[in-house]
Amino acid sequence: MAKLIYSMLMSLDGYVEDEKGAFGWGAPSDEDVHTYVNELAAPIGTYLYGRRMYETMVYWETAGSLPAVQGEWARLWRATDKIVYSRTLAEPSSARTRIERDFDLDGVRRLKEESGRDIAIAGPELAAQAIGLVDELHLIKSPVVVGGGKPFFPGGVRLDLELLDERRFSGGVVALRYAVSDAGRR
Predict the structure, then answer these.
(1) What is the pLDDT of residues 99-112, one digit of tens each?
(2) Beta-bridge mates of residue 139
(3) DSSP string of 62-86?
(4) What is the pLDDT of residues 29-81, one digit of tens each?
């Protein structure tokens, strides 16, 4: 069975966007951080996105000449299937992409059971709908405090976690990888 992984870049105080909707402060500018993100992406076979996250990520479909580590990320991203949940997007702008009008938790459960590769869910609003199915969390924390905005975790959720890996990078970024305990889902 495939794992469902919720992975995002975030501020030290737990936000994936600041109050103005900006998130550029979290983009991996350090080659070592980007290499690590590529390592995390290698086992992913399918990405689940909402419209806004998909419109941000579709850049990688046609990105031109890139440094090697970013080029590898683009290659990995293009090789995955993408499911975009949107009521307004008419058609996808990338290959290997389908649009679903409504998020279907049972459909995600079936996808986990049937998939031979892991599934990543990105975007806190979409992830909040599937948090009970998430098997791993990948938190890539940037050394910035933004003071508010869109939080990584939805309110009212309780998860017991087991630390699988931690990495520290020279620019102050810290990556944490956790397994979600089945007994700790509340």
Answers:
(1) 999 999 999 999 99
(2) 8, 176
(3) H--S--HHHHHHHHHHHTSEEEEE-
(4) 889 999 999 999 999 999 999 999 999 999 999 988 999 999 999 999 999 99
Distance CA 124, CA 151 (A): 7
- Tokens linked to 85: 């949940």
CB-count exposure of residue 161 (10 Å: 0-12, 13-18, 19+): middle
What is the C-alpha to C-alpha distance for residues 159 and 132, in angstroms, rounded to an integer?
A: 9
Q: Please tell me the distance from the alpha carbon of residue 97 to that of residue 86, in angstroms, as a whole number.
A: 12
Percent of the chain beyond pLDDT 90? Answer: 89
Amino acid occupying residue 78: R
89-115: buried (b, 16+ CB within 10 Å) or exposed (e) per residue?
Answer: beebebeebebeeebeeeebeebbeeb
Q: Please state, in angstroms and rounded to a whole number, the distance separating the CA atoms of residues 7 and 4.
A: 10
Q: Which residue has the tokens 């900006």?
A: 22
- What is the bridge-based pairing of β-strands 15-17 and 150-151? antiparallel
Instruction: Enter the pTM of the model.
Output: 0.94
